[in-house]
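To: structure subgroup
Subject: Chain for Friday's discussion

All,

I'm putting the inputs and outputs inline so they're searchable in the archive.
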Amino acid sequence: MQNPRNKYLFIRILEACNADCFMCEYALSRDTYRFTPEDFSELLPEALAAGVGYVRFTGGEPLMHREVLELVRVGTEHGMRMSLITNGMFLPRFVDRLAEAGLAQVIVSLDGSSGETHDVYRRSPGMFDAGLEGLRRARDLGIIPRVNTVVGPHNYAQMPDLQRVLTEAGVEQWELSAIKLGREIRYPDPADVLTACDPIYEADPRKVLVPLGKRFYGENPEEQKAYFDESITPRPSGPLCLVTEDVIYLDGKNGRAFSCSCLPHTEDDAGPGGAPLRNTSGKVELNSPVFREHADLFKANGPTLCNGCSATAAGYSDDLARLGTVPEWSY
């Protein structure tokens, strides 16, 4: 049966970045790869045929892409709701032109409750204030302002203050996802994490900004034990991962497509994951038999197999399983 929901298409449009974040593989990258407007124009008919309604540009830092405004404009002209995720440093100087190009949502990565902490984590002075200014201006221009926060032992105690800051700034969506470093993450006192962060999730959403998805440390004792003892982030509750029905993530540089935005970041030495973006004739295919096989594998096994799920992805799948629908921009 045809999926009635609009799908999300994530595209890594470059790997270059101006930030020096300690948890990121693209820190200060000067990689020369760029996804072009021509690449996008070739891809869009396939995206429309696959049921894509939302497109999100990721990086690296998308605002370092010289043609990012044209990419947003092309997608908007084809009826896509366009989004991008940025570290925020360049957002104040771009936000007016992004609005003119048709950007519908902007996501800024903020990990501390002030520049005194966030800029240290990102090793980029001035980034917090620039990101917050860009979010406020985006809101005034009709662009949905969202914040993604990577949270771990270094910053969880700041989350109540960050909740207040984002609420006062008019941010409309907030993702709190656990830091993933490819090794065990240990908290000196797991009980203190619950004491600090449970009130964030239990707050009245009519009064303050409440994070999307699951609690980054788990919704129940079983998930919390897996997280604090084994560094396994909360997964979809099962029996299926329904994100795989609604998400396509493109790594254009390597020509691979994945059924979840988390999967490209959990690769190992076993070989390329996902599915090839092009068939043997060189034509772009977003819903090939190989991609469907890949997606079906993680649909069936993601709730037990994956380690590295995001709080938003897990919550999205659970909401679909429970309610049969999700609000716009829930992923």
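Points worth raising on Friday:
The mean pLDDT is 94.
The chain has ten helices and nine strands.

D.
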